[in-house]
Design goal:
Blueprint: H1 3-20, H2 27-34, H3 39-58, H4 68-119, H5 126-200
Helix pairs in contact: 1-2, 1-3, 2-3, 3-4, 4-5
């Protein structure tokens, strides 16, 4: 087993222990339990643990050996984690949209200011006019290059925005799947309850 796999396994075990104690596993609580480890590595492993938790919860009906109290506790913490993740993604999306709007506003203001600045006092003499034309051309080229860099940043922001939206959609799908499983379990419990009542008659 590689050091990477060993670290992930330790984090998974620690997170399961915290969950069994009714605590929500965090980077710091896992590190405190392990007594060592990089927070960055623990965070990556903890993210993988959260992803696997949903799959393990869906297998609950195939694993009757898991106590219902532990399952209910894990289910509650999982729903809280999904809600927290959705809120965090929404905040990131809003921040990206604001950053995109700010960069566009700054770019337009910079272009307007440069054009206005160079237009004032232009054409004093023929020689000065020629020099200013050359200077303005060079500055326009520089501004165009700067504009291209900003457009590249805007493209990156749009991609990040799309990725955030995709993450939100995935979280919504996970929530829907979890709710469907929860509804199925409630129906199963109701069926068993009705069966018990009919047997007691």
């Amino acid at each position: 087993m590689s050091e990477h796999d060993s670290t992930y396994q330790k984090v998974f075990i620690a997170a399961d222990e915290l969950l069994a104690l009714g605590q929500r596993p965090t980077q710091q609580s896992v590190r405190d339990l392990l007594g060592t480890g990089s927070l960055t590595t623990i965070n990556k492993a903890l993210n993988a643990w959260w992803q696997s938790l949903g799959e393990r919860l869906q297998m609950q009906r195939q694993r009757p050996d898991i106590p219902e109290q532990i399952f209910n506790m894990a289910n509650q913490i999982w729903e809280q984690a999904l809600a927290h993740s959705a809120a965090e993604n929404s905040a990131k999306r809003q921040a990206l949209e604001l950053e995109y709007a700010d960069k566009m506003t700054a770019l337009k203001a910079q272009e307007t200011a440069l054009i206005t600045q160079k237009a004032v006092g232009y054409s004093v003499t023929d020689t000065q006019s020629e020099q200013k034309v050359i200077q303005l051309t060079n500055e326009k080229l520089s501004l165009s290059q700067h504009n291209q860099r900003l457009e590249g940043e805007i493209v990156n922001l749009r991609e990040a925005h799309q990725n955030a939206q995709q993450q939100i959609i995935q979280q919504d799908l996970r929530i829907q799947s979890l709710e469907a499983d929860k509804s199925a379990k409630e129906q199963e419990v109701q069926r068993l309850h009705s069966l018990i009542l009919s047997l007691n008659k």
